[in-house]
Automatic annotation (TrEMBL):
Enzyme class at the top of the EC tree: transferase
Species assigned in the record: Sphingomonas melonis TY
Name of the coding gene: coaD
Signal sequence range: none
Subcellular location, record wording: Cytoplasm
Protein name, as recorded: Phosphopantetheine adenylyltransferase
Amino acid sequence: MSERIGVYPGTFDPITLGHMDIIRRGAKLVDRLVIGVTTNPSKSPMFSLDERMAIVRREVEGIAGSIDVVAFDSLLMDFAEREGAKVIVRGLRAVADFEYEYQMAGMNQQINPRVETVFLMADVALQPIASRLVKEIAMFGGPIQRFVTPTVCEEVVARVEKLGRRGS
C-alpha cells in the first residue's frame, strides 16, 4: 500500500492558531503532511520565506504525525505532484472562503485530476483568524495573543516595532 501524502499550502505570514488547528487535524488524515510555504505575488509578506519556514518548522515540532515543511514557488498542482501528494488540505473559515476555495479546487482538478482537495472547517473559536488581520491588528498596536502562539506573537510585535509602524 502506498503512503498517503497530503499538502497543506499557504504563505503562513504569520502562522496562526487557525493554521495550527488545520495542520493538527490534517496530519491525522494522511501518512505524511507536507506544509508548502509559498510567496503569494499579490501579498507583501512581513517575514521572509526563510523566516516563515523556520517559524513553521518550530511551531509544528510537537504535532503528532509525519510533517515536513517545504518551500515552493510554482503551481500548487506541480508542487503536489513533485511531493507525491494525492490530497490538498485546505481550511475553511467562512462562506467567502468556500467560494474562493471551491473555484480554486475546480481549477486545480482541471490541471491535475489525480489530486483531490479536502476541505476542513476551522474550529468555531478560530474561524475569524486570518494572517492579514493579525498583521493589521499588530501594526496598530492591538492585542494578537489570542490568534497566534506566544512565540509568534513576540516575533510579530518585534517585526512591527522594527518596521516602525506600531500604533501609527
